[in-house]
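ARCHIVE CARD
Drawer: 12
Card no.: 0347
Subject: one protein chain, sequence and derived structure
Cross-reference: see card 0346
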Amino acid sequence: MTKARRIALCGVLTALALALSLAERMIPIQLLIPIPGVKLGLANVVTMFALLFLKPRDAYAILLCRVCLAAIFAGSVTSFLFSLLGGMLALTTTWVLLRWKDRTFTMFGISAAAAAMHDIGQIMAAILVMGTTDVLAYLPLLLVSAIPMGLLTGAMIQVLSAHLKAIQFM
């Protein structure tokens, strides 16, 4: 893939991740799962795709751009910190676990682990923002919700990857 094509693809993926992130804020997931802060993680599908089909630095750049733009368009400094710490921890976990994909881990397991690490990153951000470790009491509830959300993300990646390989996208 040429450098120009890779940069253009990163731009498109950043725009898609941003659109999914902003759209996800409008989905009333709390009606189904009454846990504050729980999200589907749709933008994470784009980041995982980038990690699978591009270089790790491209995936990190897409994540950073998406987090910055989402904070500018619909967030705050606090939401930026929560998204950044959660996203970086999740992406790093995914990158590390992908090395054992198919031998030890499936995409479902990798996605569930990444979702759990995202929640841990958000709790770390909450500790920094609030200046107390009392928020750790909320972590078990978040981790229970991370498993189904991570499995959903893993399913989306499986389907997307299979279709893109079938059309020889990459």
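Annotation on reverse: The chain has a mean pLDDT of 89. Residues 139-166 form the longest helix (28 residues).
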